[in-house]
Each structure stands twice: as C-alpha cells, then as structure tokens.
Amino acid sequence: MAQAVVKCEICNQATGRNVCIECEHLFCNNCKLMHLRMNISQNHTFKDVDEEFKSTVNRKHDMVFLLFCETCGCIASKTCTTRKHNWCNLEGVNFARISELQVEVSEQLESYSKEMQIKKRSISMVESQVQRLERDCQKVREEIYSRGEMLKSTVDEIVSSLTRHNLRKEKKQQDKAKAYIDKLGKLDENLNNLKRQYRRIHDKRIGVGLQNSLQNLKRFVDMYDPAIPFMPSLGKIAYADHYKYKTNYSEEIKNLFDNLYFDIVSESDSDTK
Predict the structure, then answer these.
(1) What is the pTM of this model?
(2) How far apart, in whole angstroms, are the C-alpha atoms of residue 93 and residue 162?
(3) HEC states along 240-251?
(4) What is the DSSP secondary structure assignment for residue 16, as one 8-state letter?
C-alpha cells in the first residue's frame, strides 16, 4: 500500500501545515509567506491544521497513519512498521468499516435529535404546569390565611365571651360578699349606738330619771334585730382544664384544618379522583 505524505498544495514538496481560510488550500510555511506578500491575498487569514487532521499524521516522519496495529492497539505509519511493529499484526484502513461507522453514528445522532425535539415540546407543558402549580399553591395559601383569620376571630370572640361571663360571675360573688359585710356593719353600728346611749344614761341619770331613760332605751333595744345573716359561701371558680397535662395545642389546632386538603398529586391520580 502506498504511503501518503501531507504535502503543500502549492509547491507539492514541503509539508502543508497552514490552511488559508479564503482560498481553502493547504500551505507550507514558505508558500504561506509568499501568499501573504501578494497584494491580492495579503489580507487572507490562516489557521493551523485541525487537530483532528494532525492526529492522522506521524509528526516524526511527516507520514500519514495508514495502518492499524492490532497487537499494540494503535495506528502506525509505514515507516514505523520497520522499526517498532516488526512482529505485530498490522492491517490497512478498512474503508468499509469507516462507512459503516459513519452510518451508525449518523443514524444514532439523528435518532437522538428527533427524541430531543419531542422532549423539547414538553417544555411548554412543564412551564404550563408550573404556572398552574403557582396558582393552585397561591389559592391554598389564601385559603389557609382565610381559615386562620376566621379561627383567630372565633377564638377572640370566645375569649371575649368567656371573659365577660367570668367577670359577671366575679361581680355576683363580690356583690354577695359586699351585702353581707355591709349588713354586719350596719348591725354593728346600731349596736354601738345603743351601747353609747346606755353608758350616757348610766353615767348621768339617777333615781326616777334613770329609770325613765332606761325604759325608753329598752324600747329601742327591743326593736333592735340582732339576727346576724349567715355568712355566704362564695365558693371558687371551677375551671375544667382538660389540657393541663398537655404541653402544646399544635395537634388540636391542626385538627381545625383537617377538611382543608392539599398535596402534590400526579396527573393520573388527579384524573381518577
């Protein structure tokens, strides 16, 4: 098999190492300089030979790799075969296999591209679901807030009602105690007045005058009602604390939201409900 050499497309002698973008030709270094000196091409741009193309060239010998060493698992130029691969199993380039690989890779890439196009169409569906999710979650948050405000309002009303009821109970018992204390105070005051009158009469009157005064005082004493009212039993407020052994009320409060169901469900689950 003939061994190819990467030659300059202008002089066809030296190794081509530069590609003119405008002319699309391979130049050696000398021809590149001459090309740039010409007025018509002095503004042309060059780039180095593509790395993939360089990978097919044995830089040591400037020869193209045309053989594959199955023993070493690498490519080799014909010059290498006489130096490093004398006893190796070498074979030439299998163009049929290259064509086969090109077809396989091309078909795979085409298949992946079609699949990707189909998947890309789902982006709009996902974005639509995200928007719907945002609306639904916002609606749930509003319902949670509304439910919470309603419960707080109800709790405030209950607290206010219980407080008023408690105050009425307190005032009723206070009035009962005050009436008892006031009545005892009145009886004590009347008794003290009678006692003062008695001492005055006893100290200042004698004889018939004393007798007459005592008889008059006796009528007032007989009118005095010494009946002392029974002491009222005020008792105590019996508050049945059913939660006194519980550390918190979080579960009790959560139960008030039981009928507000929300969760993330799949499309299939939501269709069956």
Answers:
(1) 0.44
(2) 98
(3) CCCCCCCCCCHH
(4) P
C-alpha neighbours within 13 Å on the C-beta side of residue 163:
6
Q: Which residues contact 87 (CB under 8 A, 6 or more apart)?
A: 71
Sign of CA dihedral 10, 11, 13, 14: negative
Taking the C-alpha atoms of residue 156 and residue 151, their distance in angstroms, rounded to an integer, is 8
For residue 77, give the amino acid letter.
Answer: S
Separation CA 1–CA 63 (nearest Å): 13
- Please give the average pLDDT of every successive group of 10 residues along the chain, which has 273 residues: 61 85 86 92 84 53 52 57 55 65 87 88 88 89 87 88 88 88 84 80 72 77 73 71 58 71 59 47
Amino acid at 75: I
- As beta bridge partners, residue 64 has 57
Only one residue has tokens 């196009």, namely: 117
Please state, in angstroms and as integers, the Cα–Cα distance from residue 259 to each residue in 45, 147, 262, following that order: 75, 11, 9
